[in-house]
Design goal:
This protein is of the alpha/beta class. The chain is 47% helix and 14% strand. The protein has an eight-stranded mixed sheet with strand order 3-2-1-4-5-6-7-8, sandwiched between helices. Helix 1 crosses helix 2, helix 7 (189-205) packs across helix 10 and helix 10 crosses helix 11. It binds acetoacetyl-coenzyme A. The site of acetoacetyl-coenzyme A (CAA) has 17 residues, from helix 2, helix 7 and helix 9. Residues 49, 52, 119, 142-144, 146-148, 189-190, 193, 225-226, 231, 235, 239 line the site of acetoacetyl-coenzyme A (CAA). It holds the Pfam family 3HCDH.
């Protein structure tokens, strides 16, 4: 199962980061989104990140140019007709992902692996819309993708060992560390991270401490690089709420109940860094 050509679907923060690390590892990459302007924005992010590496002396200009030359813009899923792997990083919506995977199943060669970067949707359910569930797998990258070492590699119910091993080996080529996980709500990363963030929000909601105080305790006391509320703003409060709801629905346990303050902020459009306001204000 040799992987040479990869399509990344979704040119947002995660998708562009994934495309960048794949191109830096020597893969040929198609960066796909539904509109040219979205792909252009993703390419702009990659350019900025690579230029920062050039400024720091970690990359030559020639290396930067060859990485950029390995990334081709795409606005049609049909461009996946000759890829070996697709990594889908589109919006976290089961209906949209199911539609994409059903189309990819028709378009891509029969040997191609179909991976999703979903943070909490069931891999097994996504795989079930295809006629190749053994070739469907989760590749959950962490934000910011170029910096974070982990890839949570999630086996769906039918994922084959051969496919798991191909993705494990590719993860090492991307200079990342794969960790094998089974398909249950929130996998491992978000099953543990999100209840901590939710509890931090309850701590503010119940007037125990200010957001600044909660973050300071966790940063200085637990050596976390960011406090949980800064991290929630960084991830996006809508994403945090969505994942909590997935955990709550998946396990049916009250311990995953999203904090009312989180719901209120999302309803107000306070989505964190990307909207300019969350637990903190950004300009
Ligand atoms: N893209 C690329 N590189 C970035 C970056 C970005 N968005 N943000 C920071 N960096 C790089 C910087 O260039 C810098 O590189 P060098 O060390 O090579 O110079 C390095 O990261 C450190 O950056 P800074 O010095 O500016 O800031 P920092 O030391 O505070 O680190 C951080 C920033 C890496 C984001 C750090 O705060 C951190 O690790 N935060 C926690 C991140 C985290 O928990 N991510 C997981 C989120 S959960 C998730 O993604 C899964 C999900 O499903 C929700």
């Amino acid at each position: 199962m040799e992987i040479k050509k990869v399509m990344v679907i979704g040119a947002g923060q995660m998708g562009s980061g994934i495309a960048q690390v794949c191109a830096q590892a020597g893969y040929e990459v198609l960066l796909n989104d539904i509109k040219d302007e979205f792909v252009d924005r993703g390419l702009g992010n990659i350019n900025k990140n690579l230029n920062r590496q050039v400024e720091k002396g970690r990359l030559t200009e020639a290396e930067r140019d060859s990485v950029l030359n390995r990334i081709i813009a795409s606005v049609q899923l049909e461009d996946a007709a000759d890829v070996d792997l697709v990594i889908e990083a589109a919006v976290e919506n089961m209906e949209i992902k199911s539609k994409i995977f059903a189309q990819l199943d028709e378009i891509t060669p029969s040997h191609a692996i179909l991976a999703t970067n979903t943070s909490s949707l069931p891999i097994t359910e996504i795989a079930a819309v295809t006629k190749r569930p053994e070739k469907v797998i989760g590749m959950h990258f962490m934000n910011p993708v170029p910096v974070m070492k982990l890839i949570e590699v999630i086996r769906g119910l039918a994922t084959s060992d051969e496919v798991y091993e191909a993705i494990e080996s590719m993860s090492h080529k991307l200079n990342k560390t794969p960790v094998e996980v089974n398909d249950f709500p929130g996998f491992v990363a978000n099953r543990i991270l999100m209840p901590m963030i939710n509890e931090a929000i309850y701590t503010v909601y119940e007037g125990v401490a200010t957001p600044e105080a909660v973050d300071e305790v966790m940063k200085l006391g637990m050596n976390h690089p960011m406090g949980p509320l800064t991290l929630a703003d960084f991830i996006g409060l809508d994403t945090c709420l969505y994942i909590m709801e997935t955990l709550h629905e998946g396990f049916g346990d009250d311990k995953y109940r999203p904090c009312p303050l989180l719901r209120k902020y999302v309803k107000a459009g306070w989505l964190g860094k990307k909207s300019g306001r969350g637990f903190y204000q950004y300009n």
